[in-house]
Amino acid sequence: GPARTDRSIDMVRTKAAQKKPKAPKVTKVAGGTKKPPGRPRKVKEPVQEEEPAEDAPADDQADDEKGSGRSEPAEDATPMDDADPVERKATDDDAPAVKEDPPAADGEAGDKTKEGDDEPNLQPETVLHETVRSCLRIVVPSDKAGYVIGPRGKIVAHMRKVSGCKFHLQETSKTHAMRVAVVMCSDKKSEPESFQGVRGVEMVHLRSTEEMIPKDADLNDPPMGARPDETQTQRARVIVAASQMEKVDLSELASGAGADCEKIVALESGSEECEALHRALGSIVFPTDRFIEIVGKDAAVRAALTVLMMRLDYRANPPIAAEDPLLLIDAPDVKEGYFRDKKEKDRLQRHRDSHGAGRDGR
């Protein structure tokens, strides 16, 4: 009946009134676009509608450029896909030629560098800086070893600074045994007339045979001690690898630079004196090493010692690898992996010590 119809109409109006505030639609009025009340958010529809409008001229411009025949390079491959088949074929044919040119040029440049440009520049540089390390050895009396080293190693530090050599004073576990001073130097192949090892060995010999300097002397720049009286006989013993003996030429040395010496000899292997030296020095020399003994007045011994050292220069007279004295030196500046090996030795020693103790560690 009419009452029911009016009720239905009222319900429809009520629902419409409830939905009306939630509608996000923009109400257009005569004065322009009006935002719904209570919604501060901007309407983005106009911005989205403008993007296609901006792209359209770009597409039209691209079509105009293709139609006009302009061949400006594209930034990507997309325009090439739209090109005519004839134009695309021409582009494919041209592309390999353009790509192959740079490698060909590089290859030619590389060949030229190998043939002449590189070698004249690198060869002198390599020869100029290439060095050879030599290792010389001289016996030091046990009572002079501490003097050669100096308090806190200051004498050796001074010798290193003056001569440019490195020094190692090897010792054995035997009490009051002689020591071996190892002198190492690196010299350029391009300067065969200069050998730093001569100065290094000479300084060890002078320190071990001079009168001791006063205890209050400046150890950072220590003076040389007084030389022994000329009437006194001096002795120098140099250790030489067996493979170096041939070029040492002792007979010529004795008749030449060592003519004023009382004797210059290589101790015979198996002789009592040679065996005594090997027993005293033990593991810090090779069983095949030879001992050259120079005896005479101070000046004569020093002159012969200088020439002998020149003949032990590794650039002209290196020992075989098995007789290299560096193999006998256990020091970080000589032995590769020194600290790693030392750490392992310490670990093994702790392991042995723990096994020797009781179960409770005491």
From TrEMBL:
Keyword Signal: no
Ranges annotated as biased composition (Acidic residues): 48-63, 74-84
Skewed-composition ranges (Basic residues): 16-25
RNA-binding listed as a keyword: yes
Annotated coiled-coil segments of the chain: none
This protein's UniProt keywords: RNA-binding
Alphabetical list of InterPro entries matching this protein: KH_dom, KH_dom_type_1, KH_dom_type_1_sf
The protein, known as: K Homology domain-containing protein
Record region (Disordered): 1-128, 340-362
Pfam families attached to this UniProt entry: KH_1
Domain K Homology: 132-313
Signal peptide range in chain numbering: none
A GO molecular-function annotation: RNA binding
Domain of life: Eukaryota
Compositionally skewed regions (Basic and acidic residues) per UniProt: 1-13, 64-73, 85-102
